[in-house]
Predict the structure.
Amino acid sequence: MNSGTLKLIIAALLITGFYTWFGNSIPQTAWEAPKKKTFTPQMKPSELAVEGKDIFKSAGCGVCHSVTGEKLRGPDLSQVSTRMDSGVMAAFLYSGTAVMPPAVKPPANLNDDEVTALVAYLQTLGGKASVKIGDIKPLK
Ligand code: HEC
């Protein structure tokens, strides 16, 4: 083996070593399934609204609805609670419309507690949350 070959081997080892070190230095982020929140009837409407805000994001409502005054595919919801009460909001979420998918069907697939939290959040848009777990029930 001449010295040129040796240098090449050493260089190759150094480069591989560097990338191994570099790769391992990147923090590994484990993928975790989104945690299902547990809701209790003791939760205050304002606490539900905080959860509802997250659900609004994760359920994809923001794809069609702005809460800051913009017109997207659906109506802007920044003042929605001045236009409708919690029952009407729930009706939209349970039934959907011809142009809006029901929130209780895939892809959002929300359960009753999550719908209640979402309604609490919608109530804060132009008003104050007042619903608690148990107040919002599926439509008959
Ligand atoms: C694919 C687009 C789309 C998605 C996703 C969607 N909506 Fe809608 N939504 C609409 C449209 C369009 C309307 C208007 C109703 C109609 O014309 O039938 C509407 C109406 C509403 C209304 C009544 C507003 C009003 O002022 O009349 C509420 C409340 C509402 N949506 C909430 C939600 C929430 C909360 C979510 C998330 C779970 C959601 N929407 C997801 C399109 C969507």
In short: The chain is about 45% helix and 0% strand.
